[in-house]
Amino acid sequence: MSQIEDRLAELGITLPEPNAPVANYVPFVRVGELIHISGQVSLDASGGIRGVVGEDVDLETGRQAARLCGLSLLAQMKAACHGHLGRVKQVVKLNGFVQAGPGFFDIPKVLNGASDLMVEVFGETGRHARSAVGVYRLPMNFAVEVDAVVSVS
Fold first, then answer.
1. What contacts 113, CB < 8 A, 6 or more positions away?
2. Could you give the C-alpha distances from 147 to 9, 35, 46, 73, 105, in angstroms and in order?
3. Which residues pair with 66 in a beta bridge?
4. Could you tell me which of 47, 58, 68, 45 has the C-alpha nearest to residue 116?
5. Residues 126, 122: Cα–Cα separation, whole Å
6. Residue 53 near residue 98, CB atoms below 8 Å
7. Which of 11, 31, 73, 114 has a CA positioned 20 to 30 A from the CA of residue 92?
């Protein structure tokens, strides 16, 4: 096991199976040392977190939704690295989208759920650039969607 798998075990994190695409795209594309991971929604085994943050979903639940996205990103990273998360050299950037109500402005705080997870798992290698955007609607009414760019060896 790599240090990253050891760290996941210490944190009590079991990664989900990578989500299959629901339309005409692939889960990730590798170009040189960069992996571009398609958007991962706030899905889990129970169906995930759906709804409008600031209306149906409160801030803390929104953060949990972003963390679910982060877990799915980690699962895709592992698949892209042929099962070896130790090959991740740097989480370069996360792009986060929050299905936000008209009066909800804590979008960056929601996306901290995914950002904090990357730092918990990878340490300094998990620190990344980020965009945090509030949107009118997300696919299948999910509360949060996050994509990523990761540098690998």
1. 62, 63, 64, 65, 66, 67, 69, 70, 144
2. 24, 11, 21, 7, 21
3. none
4. 68
5. 5
6. yes
7. 11
Interior angle at CA 127, CA 79 and CA 39, nearest 5: 45
Q: Dihedral of the CA atoms 134, 136, 142, 147 (nearest 10)?
A: -50
Largest CA distance in the chain: 46
Q: Pick out the chain residues at pLDDT < 50.
A: none
Determine phi and psi for 75, rounding to 5 degrees.
-65, -40
State the pLDDT at residue 66: 98
* d(C-alpha 2, C-alpha 148), whole Å: 22
Nearest in space to 13 (alpha carbons), one of 59, 62, 78: 78
Instruction: Compute the C-alpha angle 78/79/82, nearest 5°.
Output: 85
C-alpha angle with apex 64: 7 to 143, nearest 5 degrees? Answer: 135
Task: Write down the pLDDT at residue 13.
Answer: 96
pLDDT for position 36 = 98
Determine the 3-state secondary structure of 107 from DSSP: helix
